[in-house]
Amino acid sequence: MQSNMFSSSKLxxxxxxALQFSAISLAHPTLEERSPPIVMGLAAGFGAIAHxxxxxxxxxxxxxxCGTCPGTAITGLGPGQPGxxxxxxxxxxxxxxxxxxSCLTAYNDAxxxxxxxxxxxxxxxxxxxxxxxxxxxxxxAVLSTTLTLNGASNPNGQWIFQIKTTFGTxxxxxxxxxxxxxxxxxxxxxxxxxxxxxxxxxQGNILAYTSISVLKGASxxxxxxxxxxAVTLIDDAITAEPTCTT
Length: 246
Description:
Blueprint lengths: L7 H20 L3 H4 L11 E5 L2 E5 L3 E3 L1 E4 L4 E3 L8 E2 L3 E3 L2 H19 L15 E2 L2 E3 L6 E3 L2 E5 L8 E5 L3 E3 L4 E5 L7 E5 L3 E3 L4 E3 L1 E4 L3 E3 L4 E3 L2 E3 L4 E4 L2 E3 L7
Parallel strand pairs: 1-4, 1-21, 2-5, 2-22, 3-6, 3-23, 4-7, 8-11, 9-12, 10-13, 11-14, 12-15, 13-16, 15-18, 16-19, 17-20, 18-21, 19-22, 20-23
């Protein structure tokens, strides 16, 4: 007859089970930790790349390569033009087509991820967000004021925004990075077109299924990719972010 409800042998079995469960928990990280990183690949060195045309009015400065594929029309940028592409022009070239393909891969990969946080309201203004995958309660998204991305001292943290239709920013809106957040790790996957307001200060890669228009005096650190349409710029500053600090 056993004097205890749990014999020493049963306690040993329970202890082994608890240890196994703990090991399983450690081996299976949270959904956010499991989300694979998105990479720009061969598009990382491009400041702007369009499927059809890339057009600039005024003294736009693109720190990086300017490209189109399969289109070949790049206007207002390059030698003899008021706009500058520090990395040169690739219009309808193999490197440009490879970059456009990398943009499409990044776009599809971003949309394939499962959101790791509750859906956001339409307006990103006033939000302070940790790394993660975000979708929205509405089809479109806007930025009216300031969006703060807090890296929580993790230089590898990524912000992926899944926007079903349009993305627009208001005049003078901005994205602020803090605590190790990096522009190269920010992705806006836009289901149709993106419209960037005058004087906006953005951080991140914009992957628009259709087109991207940027009004006067705006800036972005990242790559502008128009997957099926044009990129249109007016006296803007776009800086490619080909590498991230780890």
